[in-house]
Amino acid sequence: MVRIRQSGPDGIVMSGRTHRTRLARAFASARPMAYQKALSHVIACSEAGLLPTRLDKDGLLQALDVLQQNIGVPMPKRTPPHVVPAAVATATAQPEPAKRPALSKELRCLALAEALKPVLQASCPEGAGGYGGSLEARLHPSDAQALGGVELIRAAMRRAARQLGWRVRTVGYARERLVLVIVQDVREVPAEFADVLEADFMSAPVEMHQRMAAVGDEAALSALGPGPVQRQTEAFLQAARAAVKTDPEAWR
Description:
By secondary structure, the chain is mainly α. 53% of the residues lie in helices and 8% in strands. It contains ten helices and three strands; from the N terminus they run αααααβααββααα. It has helices at 17-30, 35-47, 57-69, 86-93, 107-122, 141-146, 150-163, 191-213, 218-224, 228-246, and strands spanning 134-139, 168-174, 179-185. β2 (168-174) and β3 (179-185) form a beta hairpin. The longest helix has 23 residues, at 191-213.
């Protein structure tokens, strides 16, 4: 029968070097085998998490049984719970990617919005007190992409319109051969400007009928000049070119 000296009245031997040493001596006596070899085996089983922490009577028998069963078995080392794996530490230490700023704060958007303000002002009917303005531009996809895309263009339109005091509604979509962007002032019009805006609204069908009647007549179409959308598209492009020219670094 193997005997082991206990360290307290409850029969528990504290874990650590003393724990391993006493268990190794007990195992070396039970086998029998060399003490150093028994100690190495105890350490390997302990690091693998196989041994009990209590060395009372039952714990000792359990520990000796585990040691006996694992003679000659390679012992994997267990990572201590307080040690964080290097890969995890590296991953958690990486800084979070910087958030992309809102389109309305990009330099391109700021520059384009500033250039568009006079264009939007000019779209308001004369005598309407700055109400009723709108801008529609039909762009080639490559032109829209060079300016930052349809969403950036819409953001610039909104910014310019709001700086003019407009209540804004925008539309924008991209197709294979066309990009359409629209901004409108949808504020309620004061009564003093209502007649002016109504007259401007009624003039649009008149011009449309004139153009429809001139279809096939090159001279008549030439006399009418560019249509409303064409005029606004050209005004938009001129403003965009001026914005790019003013701050070319923002567009690279």
